[in-house]
Structure formats: C-alpha cells, structure tokens
Design a protein that fits this description.
The chain is an alpha+beta fold and 380 residues long. The protein folds into 2 domains: 211 residues, FAD/NAD(P)-binding domain, CATH 3.50.50.60; 152 residues, D-Amino Acid Oxidase, subunit A, domain 2 (D-Amino Acid Oxidase, Chain A, domain 2, 2-Layer Sandwich), CATH 3.30.9. Helices cover 27% and strands 26% of the residues. The strands form 4 sheets. It has an 8-stranded mixed β-sheet with strand order 6-7-5-15-16-17-14-18. Strands 9-2-1-13-20-19 form a 6-stranded mixed β-sheet. A 3-stranded antiparallel β-sheet has the order 3-8-4, with no helix packed on it. Strand 10 and strand 11 form a beta hairpin. The longest helix is centred in the N-terminal third of the chain and has 21 residues. The protein starts with a strand and ends in a 14-residue tail after the last helix. The relative contact order is 0.20. The C terminus is likely disordered. The structure holds flavin-adenine dinucleotide.
C-alpha cells in the first residue's frame, strides 16, 4: 500500500475520479470543493455526456478510448451501478473533410464497427434530421451516453467509504505547488502532493495558465419534441452533425433524462463566476446551427437553456502536468474530458505512486501520437 497525503482541489469528475484512483492505491486523500458536491456550476454536472471511440483527426484520443471504457468498467464495478447506456453514434456529414477517413482508419484499428448508411434511407430512419446538404451518414458502434449527474452523485457517496475526506463548500484560496499546501478560510493544509483539478477556475489558482486553459462559455438546450416526432426520438441514437458553422451534438431523451442539443464551437469568452442566465447572444449561434441540423427546430418546446463553462486550450488537447515540486494540474477538458476522466485520473494516481514517469504525463495527456498508445480491446 502507498502512504502519503494527497490534496485535491476541485470536485468535478476529474477531482472525484483522481480521489477514487488514489484512495484505492492506499493514499490518504482530502478533496476541497468550493461549492456543493456535486457542484451544479461545474463542467461535469449535467444530465449526460457522450462517450465514443470516434475522434476524427485527434486519433490519439481515439486510441485511448478502449482503455477509457475499461476504466469506466472498473469504476462502475466499484460503484455497483453502470451509468453508461451503450448506443450507436451517427454522424451527419455536410461537406467533405478528413473526418471520415481518419475516423474509419482509427476505428478499424480498434476493431470498432463503422459503416455508411445509404443517404436514401436517412429521411425515413431519422425524420427529425435535415437531409439537404448531407454528403454522408455514418454509423459507428462503441459509443453511448454517460449519465453524468448520477456518476458524480455515486462517486460523492462512495469516496468517504474509501477513506477520502470530502470538504464541500470549502474554497481553496491559494495553492503552493512547491510546498504542497492549500490555503482555505480555516487555515493551511499540508500534503505530500497537490492535484489541482479546478476546471474553468484553474487560472484563478494558477495564473500561469491564464491564456492557456481559457474559460469558454457554452450554451445547451433541453427540448421536448413536437408530438409527430416523439416516437422517432424515443429510439434515437447519439446524433452528431458535422456541418457548416460548427455543427451540433444531440443526446436523445431516455427515461429520466431529456433531449439535449449543443454545438461544437468554443466561445472562449467569459468567466465561470459570470451570470449563468442564457442571453440572446449565447443562444443565437446554437439556434442557428440547430436549425441547420434538425427539421422543424422551431416546433420544439424549450424546457431549459443552460450555460456551462469549460476550459479550452488552443489545440483542444488536455493539459496535465507537474507544477512546482509537489503539484500536478489536471485540465483535461476542451469540451471532451468527461469520457476520459477515470483513465486520466488513473494515470495521475499511477504517476504519483511512481508506477509511471512524471515527465511522460503531459505528452500522454496530449495524445498526439496515436501509434505510441498501447490499447486493450474495448469493453462496451
Ligand atoms: C456543455 C458541455 C458538453 C460537454 N460534452 C462532453 C461530452 O459529450 N463528452 C465528454 O467527454 N466531455 C464533454 N464535456 C467536457 C466535460 O464535461 C469536462 O471535460 C469535464 O467535466 C471537466 O471536469 P473537471 O473536473 O476538470 O472540471 P469541473 O467539472 O468544472 O470541476 C472543477 C471543480 O473545481 C471546483 N473549484 C474550482 N476552483 C476551486 C477552488 N479554488 N477551491 C475549491 N474548488 C474549486 C469547481 O467548483 C468545480 O466543481 C462537455 C462539457 C460541457 C460544459
């Protein structure tokens, strides 16, 4: 068993999974979260997140996905609940780009099925989609929906039983990554290591990340379909539109969760403490691309307009690296970090335990070289 006291700042999926991975290795872990656990304003807290092997030109992240699915399988085994609903993901391509060829190549390498659907079948199968301008419809297996809020709730309940001390509503005012300390209103806490997983607030604690991990204000909409499309949506898969103007991603409704649409374009504006009421400016772009993806978008009933923040790096890669002599910063986001969180957390824990080299952490997390990544068969 390892010994040592690890302090974690942030109780989103990154912080919670890192606490889980370290506690299972025998570390004494304390986690500090400025809000409630889970925090409704974190990037992680939402009804769902998409998980998929298909990664377009970011083939390195695709190559990490079999191990990511395996990491989720282990976590769900420990939680005693599998908050992942497998379902295919369909990609509506509206113009030629490299996405299809690179995705097909990397899925084939992983043994994940990927096939084109005849365009003549799209309108009948997906009556909710616009078919004008469609150049390909691609079905991929090895995808699904992670029920994010349920995962966060179960992890929060499970961690104390593993010995993790949770400190909700405890803002960390400063981190000293050389000394291994965090400062809260109650005083200074000393650890052997500090992991900063502060999401879109990370640059408030580590100003050197300002301009590197940039907060990005994003809008999503929850909708109820018009009656004539309700049945089609009930059995729908994950739908991703790689269209002009950025395209959309759609998670279908399931019992207990709602139909959601978001877009792929980073706003790279705002601060996560800004007002969360969705403005016309927030919604205009999303509505414009949604009208380009769905037929009759204006017939849907809007249930909620939600503003979320995440961090975006310039190249959309994860930033996970050593800070000072005792710190590790985990900014594994750019809008695609949830699905990889248990795997990244396991890698951080393995690095702290000396099973992996600290110097390798940033390049592993940036996943630039797909062929350098060892992968095990997926476990969907
Ligand atoms: C709209 C949207 C859609 C997305 N879709 C997907 C998807 O389909 N698939 C996917 O894989 N990913 C997706 N993502 C990205 C994914 O949700 C994020 O990458 C992930 O949730 C980031 O988790 P995190 O723990 O790093 O950050 P967060 O969840 O934001 O957690 C950080 C926590 O740190 C706390 N904190 C900050 N500062 C302090 C402090 N000083 N003291 C104490 N606590 C502090 C915050 O309160 C917060 O709870 C999406 C994100 C958004 C917003």
């Amino acid at each position: 068993m390892a010994h040592g006291r690890i302090l974690i700042v942030g109780g989103g999926i990154a912080g919670l999974c890192t606490a889980w991975a370290l506690a299972r290795r025998g570390y004494a872990v304390e986690l500090f979260e400025r809000g409630d656990l889970p925090n409704q304003h974190s990037s992680s807290c939402d009804e769902h997140r998409i998980i998929r092997h298909a990664y377009g030109e970011m083939e390195g992240y695709g190559a990490l996905m079999p191990a990511a699915f395996e990491a989720w399988r282990r976590l769900f085994g420990d939680l005693g609940a599998r908050h992942l609903e497998p379902m295919p993901a369909y990609y509506a391509l509206r113009g030629e780009d490299d996405w299809y060829e690179t995705t097909r190549r990397s899925l084939r390498r992983m043994g994940v099925d990927c096939a084109e659907m005849p365009l003549s079948e799209v309108a009948d199968t997906f009556p909710m989609l616009r078919t004008d301008g469609l150049t390909r419809m691609v079905r991929t297996e090895g995808a699904g929906v992670l029920y994010a809020a349920r995962i966060l709730a179960d992890l929060t309940n499970r961690l104390p039983a593993l010995g993790v001390r949770l400190h909700p509503r405890t803002a960390v005012r400063a981190v000293d990554c050389e000394a291994g300390t965090v400062a809260t209103a109650a005083g200074m806490v000393q650890g052997d290591r500090v992991v900063v997983a502060a999401g879109a607030w990370v640059a408030d604690l580590l100003p050197e990340l300002a301009g590197v991990a940039v907060p990005s204000r994003q809008a999503v909409m929850y909708l109820a379909p018009p009656p004539q499309l309700a049945a089609a949506w009930r059995d729908a898969p994950v739908l991703i539109d790689i269209g002009g103007g950025g395209g959309t991603y759609t998670i279908p409704p399931r019992p207990g969760t709602r139909l959601k649409i978001g877009d792929h374009v980073f706003s790279r504006t705002g601060h996560p403490d800004d007002d969360r009421a969705a403005t016309t400016g927030d919604l205009d772009r999303l509505i414009a691309v949604a009208r380009g993806s769905w037929r009759d978008f204006d017939q849907y009933t809007v249930l909620e307009r939600r503003i979320c923040y995440y961090t975006a790096t310039a190249d959309e890669r994860f930033l996970v690296r050593a800070e000072g002599g005792r710190g590790i910063v985990c900014s594994a986001c750019s809008g695609h970090g949830f699905k990889l969180a248990p795997l990244v957390a396991d890698r951080i824990a393995a690095t702290i335990a000396g099973e992996r080299e600290l110097a390798m952490l940033p390049s592993w997390a940036a996943a630039r070289d797909a062929h350098a990544i060892e992968f095990e068969p997926g476990a969907l």
